[in-house]
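Predict the assembly for these two chains.
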Amino acid sequence: MSPRTKGGSAGSHVVPETPPILVAPATGSELNTVSVAIIPVACWRVDDIRFEFDSSVVMPGVKTELDELKKLRTQHPGAPMSVFGHADPVGSDAYNKALSGRRATAIYALLTRDTALWEDLFSNTLGNDRWGLPALQTMQDTLDAAPGGAGRAPRAKDAEKNPGLRKTLFEQYMNELCGPDLKVAKTDFLGRGADAGGKADFQGCSEFNPVLLFSEKEQQRFDAATDKSERNAANSPNRRVMVLLFRKGSKVVPSKWPCPRAKEGTAGCEKRFWSDGQTRRSRRLPDAERRFPDTRDTFACRFYQRLTTSSPCEDIPVLETAKLEFVLDGNGDRKIDASDPATTFLRMGLWDNAFDPPPAGSGAGAANVLANDVAEDKNFVGADTRRFYLRVTDPNASGRVKVNWRTLKEDNSDLDRPGDQSLTLLETQTGSSVFVSRALMLVTDTDDQNQETDSGLAAGDANAGKRKHGEADHRIRKASLRGFVEAEYQPKSGPKIVQKLPVFNRDPDDRRTLPLHIFVMRRTVGGQGVIPTAAGSAVFTRDLRIIRETYERIGMSVTTSAPRGTAEANIVRDGGDALVLVDPPAGVNSFAVDDAAEQAIGAATPADPNTIRVYYAGRLTSGNRGEAAPMVDFAARTDAATAFVNGGSFATAMYSPAHESGHVLTNKSNAVNGGHYNAPAAPPGNKLLNDQNLMRNATSTSEGVLESKRLWDAADQDGVNEFTSMRASQFTRAFA
Amino acid sequence: MAAVLVLAVVLTSGGAMAGVDPVINEASRLLTTLSGMEVSKLALSRGFSEYSDASKNALVAGLARSSTWPPDRVLARLPYIATPDNRDDMIAIYKRNLASPDHGGRRESVFGLERLGDPSAVDAARQALNDDADDVVVAAVSVLLPYAKRDESVWHLLQDTYRQRRNDVRLYNSMGLLKDSGIERPTPPR
């Protein structure tokens, strides 16, 4: 029985006893010639998953299989080896001959530490088999992750341009994979390294010797599919590299070895086919697969079949499936592993640990700064209480994997699908098969969406440093609370895995609805509004947008409506939204609205139940850009639960409508810090600063990431938690 | 804070108030409150009753002697701290700030004079009709429209202003206010 590992198998063959050889006496110069068949005594196989897809790049996970080879060589000391690469039946014979030869070459070079062969593979591409920077990055990552290895290896970017550094990187990577005890001399191979092209030492068998042939039915289904990933996964058992160990003392004369060299064409192979070789390797049964372990009749090459007909390594591995999850940082340590919980929904980022006071010496009036370092605890995404992560568990991958992620609208169409959606997930530790991303965040507005994020990847990584929206490893997506977040992982074996989660919990529905009436005062009775009100004007496209972006961050969807009974002539509609033009009541000047006027206006325009009224006046006599009447202070008045915005400040008071509505929602008394947010003093080092909070006294006068638009899920100095108090307000209702 | 700096100038230049620490301190706190971007409705409706009349008077007197331009929000809030003794100083503040480089200061000064019932409000409004800032012209029109309904010369003045400036896109509200008020009629509505 062969030991099966994640990426291969190894085992000893049943070797028939050599029969006694009877020799007749010779005379004169005549000699008896005894030709002993070469007989494999053991086998070692590396599966497709230990290579990059459609590539000869050897992945670090092969270390597990190399340990098995080491044991096998101990069991069979002095057994010479030969390497056979195999491809699957997709593509031309010639291409697959070359690719299978390249994989065999890569393994031979690894065992013999022949960096020149790897350099040849690196420098000479074949189809998709391009080593390039990603291969070097894999090597660097592997070496950096080794105990004491951080920074020891040449940087991939440098090695890409410098052959000398590349040789060093290859050498270190080979040593890391094989360890000190597994270095094979070229003379330990069947051809003893005598042939410069490796004849008898390593070769590619193209697609001539499949272990698995799909049924006609399966093949038709795969042919019809646009996405070939499932076919490719099902075909993976055919993509393998086999190393056979022969009886100690076996020797061949390379020139007489029947297999062509790795770089030669297929003609030499075809000469060794069974007479029905083409049929053997291609015939399909209507409803059943043909499997070599069961029928021993799928190899075209008679020579190879003789060597392996009873080999325990020519089995068909059961493919282990990969898993993709969105996870949360269960214990808050910012170190995600297999133990952190998967989540069934995601929420918007709050930017609640995002800002630091300006550095000492910045001078008066300097703005707070956004924490955007590589370290997670010093990064606004990595430190956010709503951060989440992507985790892949894939026994068939190693080092790093890529996941694409995007956001969708309610109807599943794309919302934020940047040019490059990919995200790098690093293996938690070598061999864990668990890969995790850096923290990720959802946002509601375009300023936040376009904020650069540090990728969180180590210096020297191709994607280290600040990443823009549209670039790989950007960690932000704009989302809708009616929509979804989707991630997609393509394992090397198995179909593409897609995970889609809702934004905010839907079962039970954690979202809320915030209904508003928006009024714009007319300049005079029957006149125009004190601000432009046509569909498409700033009251809709800026103020209402900001209100929505603000409250979607805490899971609230804003709706607008005219109070029941409002004359249609007074309503301006823009899509599904509405505002109401309202005459100044008798004795009220729209440009001199004071407390008494607000009560008169409130009395003239009653609201539907539990609906906040937002008014745009021409001018507030208070000099405020806006003012509100929360229930805690004004419940008995006709202007209770109203928010007034000073039209005179309209050009720069874009956050005022959201802010004043916030006063009604938090219901914090005017008597306590004016009802405003009051940054907590504790705990030391907290980042819940006044300047970026929507409810500070004095909202920002321009839009941006650093402006006063945030709402946080933490008690302020006065004990008011914006997230919970706003969502629990009597002015919100079940999501609809 | 800029407002506190203003007060420091105001108070240190006022020899009569120097050394009256409790009142100055209270006036300083009041100015800080009035300078806030947002003063709550509750505080406004209570007329800042937690502050003494002495501190209100001291603040207004200091501002009247100041050579700096207070923010428009401070000017807007002065009527909320009116006492029987600070009206004249307040009027002086507004008259001076009719020339403020900040259009908000000019706007609040026109409205302030009108709110205090000072006769100079009409002349101030007439002058303000020529201002480049829409909100200042709105203030002027707001003050003058009630007079125009009684005095045809004011009505014609407003008509002239409208004819001359109605195509100025900056004057969205002021010209709109005149139009909505029927300024194109030959005589004021009765």
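Chain A touches chain B through 38 residues (CB under 8 Å). The mean pLDDT of chain A is 93.
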